[in-house]
Structures are given as C-alpha cells and as structure tokens.
Amino acid sequence: MKKKRGPLVILIFLSALLLVTLASAEFDEKAIVDKGYSCLKEKLGDNCADTSNTHQAAFSLLAMSHESSIKSECRDSLEDKEKSENCWGETTSSSCDLKSTSLAILALNHAGANVDDNIDWLLTKKKQSAGLIWFLEIDANNATQCKIQVNDAEEKTFSVGENKKISGSSSCLTPSEQDYFLRIADSCLTKNFTISCDKNFITTLLYKKPSEITYHVSSITHSAPAGDSTKEKVESYCFGISSECNYEGSLWAALALAKTGEDISAYLPYITAMSDELINKKYLPSAFLYMLTNDDDFYLELVGKQKQSYWDESGKKFYDTALALLSLQNLALEQVDVTKQYLSDVQENNGCWGTISETAFLLYALNPTTSSSGSGGTSDSQCQDPSYGYFCVSPSQCSISDKLDNFYCPSLGDVCCKTSSNEITCSEKQGIICSANQQCTETEVTAFDTNNCCLASCITTSDKSECEQFGYSCETECSSNQEEKPTYSCFSGVCCKDKDSGGLSLMWIIILIILIILVILAIIYRNRIKLWWFKRKNLITSKPPTAPSRRPMVQMPFRPAPFPQSQRRPMPRNQSRTQSKNTGMEKDFDETMRKLREMSK
Fold first, then answer.
1. 77, 118, 84, 116: which is closest to 98 by C-alpha?
2. CA 302 – CA 320 distance, rounded (Å)
C-alpha cells in the first residue's frame, strides 16, 4: 500500500537547506554580479530607462558598455542630453555643472566616443585656487649661496646655512617657518622662480592651510649641480562654475581629465588640502585621491572609513560603497571581500540594489566590463594585452610622455602607460610583514610584494588590546550599528560593540535544528512510537491494585446463608473478572491497530 511521504520529504529538504546555509557563509560573486546585470538590463529596457537624469544614463553606460544594443541606447540617451556648450546638467532641464559633465565624459570615453570638446569646456572652468599658503624650499648638503629670479626681475641673493635655515628676502619671498622655508607672497603665486646656487642643491614647493600645521609637499622635486638652475612655479587650480571653487566638481573633473590623459598635478594641491574640511568629507575624497595618487595615506583613510562592511559618508551607502570599491578595485583585500559579502546579503530578490544609478555604479565597481569597441574608438586595444606589454596604472605613476591615449584600461582610476608603476616593496616602504600568529598594531597598507604591509609594529595575537580581549573591536569610529565602549582601550581608534540586532542567535539556531531532526525521527518511527505508547498506557492501567492493609480478624457468630431460589450454578467470580478484562483489552488493541493501519495508508 502506497504511503504518503510528502510532509516527510519537505521537512528533510528544509532541514538540509538550513544546515547547508549555516555551514557555509561563502557566496558566489559571479552569481550576484550576473543577477545584478539581469536586473539592470530589465530596468533599462530598450531605451535606457528613458531617463532624463544624466547621472543615471552615465552610470548605466559605464556598466552596460559591453552589450552593444544597450550601450547604443544609453550612449544616445546621454548624448541627447548634451547642451550646446558641450556640457551637461544633472537633468535635461538643469544648467551645466561640473560633476554631470565629468560623469558624461567618463562614460562616453569608456564607450568609445570622442570627448575632446567636452574636455575643453572643463578646462575653461579651472581657476587659481585660494586659501593655501605656499613655500619654496631650498636644500643642500653644505652651506650655499643662491640667487633667485622672479620672472624677469633682478636676482636676489639668499643664503642656506649648514643648519638648513635660509636668510635674505625680497618682495615675493620672505623666510618663514623658523626660517627653513621661503614663503611666497599671494601676489606672486602665478610667477616663475628661477633658482641657482654655488653648491649642488634641490628645490621643491610646499603648501598648507592657514589654520593647520600639516605641510603638503609637492610630488615634483628638482635638482641641479652647482652653477646650474631649477625652475619652480605654483600650479594650484580648482574648478568652479562661479567665482568660487566647487570641491565635488573638482574631484570628478580631475578624475575625468586623468582618465583622458590630461596632466592633473596642478589640481591635486587644492583637492588634497581641502579633503579634511568637514563640509567636504561627505564626498569621500580619499577614494578619489587614492585613485589619482596611489598614496598610502589616502588608502589608510579610505579603509578606515569603512563601517564594518560598507561605506556611508553622504547618506547614500550604495553610492559611497561603489565609489570606495572603484578605488580599491585591483586589490585583493579583506575589506573588499567583506563588502562583497554584504552586497550579496542585501541584494534584492530581483538582483538590484536601490536605484538604477546605484545598481549600475555598483556593478561597474564590482566588475568593470570591457567596451565592445574600446575607449576612444574602434581602433583602441586593451592596454594590458600581453602582445603590447603596457600597463594600467594610477595617473600619478605615469608621466605625460608615457601615457597612451589609444589604449583601454577598464577602471576609471587607471591610465594606460608605457612603463609599470613603481614596484615598491614592503621593506622599501619601511614596513614589515607580520607572521601568521601576529597582527599589526595599525591598519596595514599595500605594497608590491604583499597587501599586508605593516608600517607600525607586529604583536602576537595573544597580545590583544583590552577592547579585543573582551570580545569587542577597535575601529576608527563606531558605525550606526555599533556603540562605543569608552571604558576599554585600543592600540588605535575607539572600542566598539555591536548593537543587539534582535535576530536569531546561534544557540536558537542549533535548538531549531535539533527540533527539526526530532520531528523527522518522530514521523519516520511514528507507528513504533504509537505502539510503544499504547503498551505503556495499558501497562499502567492493568497494574494489580495494591493489597489493602490487614486488620485484626474479629470472630463473628456463624450464620448459615439462605439457600438461593434459583438452582442455576453461579460462575466463579475470578473467571468472570478475568474474561471481562481480557475482552476489553482486546477491543482496545484491535481499535488502535485499525487506526494505525488507516494512518499508514
């Protein structure tokens, strides 16, 4: 007789699924990316979602440039929004702005369009940045006499002592900062300085904000032998539509110019110095600056802003997370893996994250696809094709003369270069690689030979901070899902404790698994259990009654019983009771077995 096993099969399947889910926290990155692309393609349809928003069209083109049909629609959509001045606004009805124009340039360049006219528009919006103090530094191994000429004016003599201090002055240059540097007057920031000394020497420029003591040193240093000369000029520009600099616009404009092969060194002083302004932190400038410079300081700042598994400085966590991942795109880091796991966990059932723009930006950051025609036209080739031997590097790591405009790099933060980046090892960075049973007391940086270069010191894992000894974590700052524990100290940062999430704990999950297993066993052995219970029940009810306590017998007078009227012989009392009891038990047993047979059908 066929048995009904539907409930049993379902329970076994659910239990196995739960056990597999709990046994592995790994995720399939390709699966979530493919699912995301499927959702984005469905959202875009056959007209790039018919959007009036430039940002959405640009991010969609970046993400979908590998599919010719969608690429064509999104490219047309973006080009249709271009205004007569060769620029873009946030929407078709908005006036031109720097961020929208820069995004459109990046997307169209990625898709193979010519953006020269749009680059020219950007360059017309650059202006001399204000608010920085500039210094000229002259250094030599020995005391030396130097002459400095400003433009075509008469030379002025300055002395550099053995203690490196400078004496002498002019209308443009005065000793400053305890006489170690020459401060450049604001009225002379656009002028050329020609320096010559009677000993071998080097020159460079420095800058800082008036309210700070941190100096930023120019990435360019010039050297010359005795009697020869060097030239220095302050090159510090920002971008702005009005008379004032626009910080977010300057970030995107610098990235667009770098990607299209322009020299961006003149824009770095402004966006670097202003990156720590409170009003600018929401733009996540460390992500842009790490893409543009590959500097460890910006890397440390960026990973330090990660809130457990994502970034959220502007209140738009998917946008900020995509921007951070774009900057860290080529690195195999734990921070990146954690973020990918988070994106897998919060991915919607249809495969998207938030808006179309956020989904497209995240997909491009996770998996930058290759344009079907390349960048800059159909003749462009992949930069890192082995047959060419070129390299995709950060813009700061490639000189203008070595940049190749007709070769394609998939990441927004890279340019194609004839030479490889400076392959600086961990030891060359004055760092160390901690052993397996050690950890770095500071956040580790990347190097040519490792992604875990410790610039501080290594301690054994048992030497944890007080915070970590109590099961908490040390962070740069606690996220919204954490609370600070100020009573516990960290080697660096603050001690953070995860807030109670209200979800199922591991103990309850284990209990749930045990209960499911018990239910399955109960279903499999249900007939045996019922029979055992039946026997146990009848064993209890059929126990002989407890013998009453005996009392002293009292002699009663003998009285003969009256003779019964009926001559029928009575049945023995013991036999009648036994038969009655057995008959009832047999009926109960038969009834139970009948029910068991019906249940098993």
1. 118
2. 11
The tally of domains found in the chain comes to 4
Q: How many CB atoms lie within 10 A of CB 395?
A: 26
Task: Give the domain CATH number at 312.
Answer: 1.50.10
The region, left, alpha or beta by phi > 0 then psi within -120 to 50, assigned to residue 86 is left
In the chain, which residues have pLDDT < 70? 1-27, 369-380, 421-422, 461-463, 500-507, 534-535, 537-593, 595-601
Q: What token pair was written down for 414?
A: 């890279």
Q: Could you tell me which residues come within 8 angstroms of residue 294 by beta carbon, excluding any fewer than 6 positions away?
A: 393, 394, 396, 397, 421
Q: Where are the alpha helices (DSSP H) in 420-479?
A: 466-469
What is the model's pLDDT at position 426?
A: 86
Residues 285, 377 within the same domain: yes
Q: How many CB atoms lie within 10 A of CB 347?
A: 19
CA dist., res. 599 & res. 311, Å (int): 58
Q: β-strand 381-382 against 407-408: which pairing, if any?
A: parallel
Distance CA 16, CA 26 (A): 17
The predicted model scores a pTM of 0.71
DSSP string, 268-313: HHHHHHGGGSGGGGGG-HHHHHHHHH--HHHHHHHHHT-BTTB--S
The rounded Cα 570 to chain-centroid distance in angstroms is: 96
Q: Is residue 309 part of a domain?
A: yes
Task: Render 344-399 in DSSP notation, one character per residue.
Answer: HHH--TTS--SSHHHHHHHHHHHSPPPPSS-TTSTT-EETT-TTT--EEE-GGGS-
Instruction: Compute how many other C-beta atoms are within 10 angstroms of the C-beta atom of residue 292.
Output: 25
Pair 80, 95 in one domain: yes
pLDDT at position 397, please?
79
Q: Are residues 347 and 334 part of one domain? A: yes
Contact 293, 254 (CB under 8 A): no
If we measure between CA atoms, which residue out of 506, 566, 353, 350 comes closest to residue 18? 506
Per-residue DSSP letter, 572? P
Yes or no: say if 105 and 118 are a contact pair by the CB < 8 Å rule.
yes
- Boundaries of domain holding 456: 423-463
| 150 and 231 inside one domain | yes
Q: Which own/partner contact pairs does 276-283 have at CB distance under 8 Å and 24+ positions apart? A: 277/247, 279/247, 280/247, 280/248, 281/313, 282/313, 282/314, 282/315, 283/247, 283/248, 283/251, 283/313, 283/314
Distance CA 134, CA 189 (A): 8
> What whole-number distance in Å separates Cα of residue 448 and Cα of residue 434?
16
The SS3 call for residue 400 is helix
Element (H, E) at 222: strand 222-224
Q: Contacts from 304-312 at CB under 8 Å and sequence distance 24+?
A: 304/443, 304/476, 305/476, 306/335, 306/338, 306/339, 307/479, 307/480, 307/481, 308/338, 308/479, 308/481, 308/482, 309/338, 309/339, 309/341, 309/342, 310/339, 310/342, 310/343, 311/284
Q: Which helix (H) or strand (E) holds 104?
A: helix 98-111
Residues 6+ apart with CB under 8 A from 275: 281, 285, 286, 289
Residue 449 token pair: 């030979």
Look up residue 383 and give its two tokens: 């930069």
Same domain, 103 and 47: yes
Do 323 and 363 belong to one domain?
yes
Backbone angles phi, psi at 538, to 5 degrees: -70, -30
